[in-house]
Amino acid sequence: GCSASDAVAILIDTIKPSVNAGADKTLTCATTSFVIGSTAIAGNAYDWSPAIGLNNTSIAQPTASATGNYSLTVTNTANGCSATDAVALFIDTIRPSVNAGADKTLTCATTFFVIGSPSITGNIYAWSPALGLNNTSIAQPTASATGNYSLTVTKTANGCSASDAVAILIDTIKPSVNAGADKTLTCATTSFVIGSTAIAGNTYDWSPAIGLSNTSIAQPTANSLQNYTVTATKSSNGCKSSDQVIIFQNITTAAAIAGVDMILTCTQRSYTIGAPANIGSSYSWTPSIGLNTNNIAQPIVNKPGTYELTVTNLINGCTSNDIINIGIDTIKPMANAGLDKTLNCAVSNYTIGTPAISGNTYLWQPSIGLSAINIAQPVANATGTYNITVTKNSNGCKSISSMNVFIDTIRPVANAGEDQTFGCPHTSLTVGSNSQSNISYNWTRSLGLSSNNIAQPTTDTTGTFVLIVTNTINQCKSEYDTVVLNPKNCECTFYVPTAFSPNNDGINDILSPFRNCDDFSDLSFSIFNRWSELVFKSYDINDGWNGVYKNELPQSDIYVWTIEYFDILYNTKRLQKGIVSLLR
Description:
The protein has 584 residues and is mainly β. A 5-stranded mixed sheet has the order 38-43-42-40-41, with no helix packed on it. The protein is elongated, with a radius of gyration of 77 Å. The termini are far apart.
């Protein structure tokens, strides 16, 4: 009955394997295949479909080179479980647009071109060959040389490229140009047509412009001595050619030399003008008036004016001209010998003439009595008629003037008057004689005279008085003359009026004594009132009483006066008394 037991376990394994076909991809011109799938896991089997475009359908990571949807089945070889995934393969092989531009032709006017077309973002550019291009890696480089230039444009997004080409041609053929033969201008032929016939399609430019009728035509007219250059430009390509023509000139003539300007003067009445003649030339002067002849090189002129000389070259007819001005200066200098002069007792000489003028010379005649004869203002000390000749140095013209030197030395006669004797009483005497015109008076011993320079002064002084008179015109003085005034012995007494009226009416207002002699001294004049009071006293005979006492003017009354003095003639002291009435 023994038994035995056994058991069996039934397990389950249905875990599917991990599967990853990888991310979707895009084929391009630059990337033509991709490794798809993911890293293989041991124990798994791999199967891709479809097989087109895959290098292997049974590996984890085949290479795919064609577009499509690829499915991957992974089987766990241990349990037979499978899992599936898919990946899509796209394609981008669109090529970029490319345009190298139109063919171009370089010319003399256009020496470069911008080729290509505007740049497109995302493209790169490559030009070849590099020779003649300023840059090979931009869309529009500048081409300055002939050749065929190839442009390759690559789209950076897919690496696809496209190419185009442009041809750069050249046209630098220069135009034909001919400035013509050299020419020579003369006085007869004053212009020439220069250049050659115009060619269609060309333009023309002449320089310099001086002397040309037109600078932009093929055949202008030239009338000037120049080296002219013509430049022809071919309108189709801007190319230029130049040529030169020389315009000479033969206008030689003997220079017309009329000479330097001249001035006719009192000493130079004519001149030879012009210059020596040249062989082969003719001469003509205008105007002819004033010339001895008008058809020679050096005529004689004797009249002022402007003269024109024309010299003609007889070979080529060319002429030259010159003028000369003939002025005239015959203005005489001003001669002025000055006013007539008169020598006298005070003036023994005079400066005659007038101040010198620069540029003049002077000559006086006669020379007797003159300090010099060749100056404008000599000193004359003798009588006579003097003539001056003034010569203007610049033109030799002369003028004459005269003046006279007289003399007046007649002395006047002094008359001091007759001798006189003073009377009694002693009053002033008049000496001298009546005044005369043009006479001045001088009393040389004049002490006591009322004036020492009048004809008839007065004096109350005895003595001898001397008079000299002077003629004020000729300053001559007289011989002296004298007058004697003699004294007279008079008894010395005084007189006092018996009444006076100090009422300021100008009549008898002052009481003073009158004298009848001169020989007294030590005089005193006193006045007393009725009470014997001294009301006035004076020691000067000319100082009288005006009636005022103690600053008041008293009423009418009787007053006593006394005069005391020393009588020189009798050598004694005297006293006089009297009464005077003051009247109101």
